[in-house]
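General statements about sequence and structure are easier to judge against a single worked case. When preparing material for the folding task, we compiled for one chain both its residues and its backbone structure tokens. The amino acid sequence and the backbone structure tokens for this protein are reproduced below:
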Amino acid sequence: MTERMNRRKVMTGTVVSNKMDKTCVVQVAGHSKHAKYHKLVKRAQKYKVHDEKNETQEGNIVEIMETRPLSKDKRWALRKILKKEVE
């Protein structure tokens, strides 16, 4: 799910909020093995992503890329929209 391009992390996730100006919140889902019981446990992490053109909608699947700090919470930038949500 994570690959490196020019030594920057690239992840795929779902847009869960786009209410802010030039910012969207992307949830990246993953899973890991439980230390004791060895079952797969679902994990999810939310990232604030810089969206310069405000082109994302809730439900879109997007690719995000690590970048320099843009604000207090934003460390990721929108790379491309992989799948648009049909309204």
Remarks:
- The chain has a mean pLDDT of 93.
